[in-house]
Amino acid sequence: MKMSFNFNNPTNLIFGTGKLNELGNQKLPGKKALLLISSGKSVKIYGTLDRVKEQLEKAGAEFFVCDNIHENPSKEVVMDAAAAAKENGCDFIVALGGGAVLDAAVAVSAMATNPGDLWDYVNGGTGKGKALVNPGLPVVTIATSSGTGSEINCWGVISNHQTNEKIGFGYPQLVPVLAIVDPELMKTVPPEYTAYQGFDALFHNTEVMISNGVNILSETIALSAIEKIAKYLPKAVADGKDLQAREAVAYGSTIAGITMQLTCTTAQHSMEHAMSAYHHNLPHGAGLIMISREFAQFFIDKHACDEQFVKMAKAMGIKDADKPQDFIDALMDLQRACGVADLKMSDYGIEKSECMQLAVNARETMGGLFLANPCPMSDEECTKIFEKSYR
User: Fold this and answer.
1) Burial class for 200, CB neighbours closer than 10 Å (0-12, 13-18, 19+)
2) What is the pLDDT of residue 71?
3) Taking the model in full, what pTM does it have?
């Protein structure tokens, strides 16, 4: 276990039920916000948008609403939102939404102040890997779901539909300055998406646990998050209004945003990004669930990090766990409890013949995460994981 780490996060994190009401009392980083929301209707229907507007007015800030962000956000919507920020004289961003909005906000922040196209600054794939010329706009995040952890870190994942690439984008200077995580805002997330998002948060933490970069701090808080998610996600799926469950899952998700700053995730995320790069209607969490069993089984069969799987199995409720395979048992029990054990790639248009193409895409676009795996994984072995997962 590594006893050294580097943790630097300047985000003011305000966590807890009812905490949205404290936004108006905060010192905001600008005078006019680009209030970034999704193209859906939930924050409007349930009154969350109006509550945020009231809080911004209380804080003395103007705002312009931009509602163009869709699931698996593309570089085109990022560039459009950045243009809206420039045209309306916005000097900071308030990202109100789930993972797509929070992810997009990082990229919008950068492109509102920098020349050219987003892909000029993306590292990996066809990205040009240029350094940012100017600092991005300050970002305030208000999470309405529990999944990505992007409310507290500098990373977002953006799709390029022209090249079938889905790549993580981020720079340390783009870390949000203020994050509000209020589980009360998550009560209306439908059961299906509660499960998808909860498993995304779970896998952020489980991947950190098996990463070759795991350290004393990232392991400690990742295990705490895994325990909370495993215990409470089925309850949140069964009853979205269960605030105790919502709080616990939100905690696990936000903690994942911290663990990923201390230790990066593994190729499981690269592999899913390849899946949804070609099949845009595939929810990220659903794709992760589909490949999760065989991904973990690969490393268990290799005895790459047996002790880590045992620790996670214990955190997930198997108190007498003594072998890596216990993690698979706990994982499948949790998937069944949340009603997601039978997801099929074929339901989203994925064909088995694509498996090698997906493996190659995963390495070409986000190959850095393969380096975090606890042992090497070839393209052929990656393909086998996709094939064994296919239904």
Assistant:
1) buried
2) 85
3) 0.95
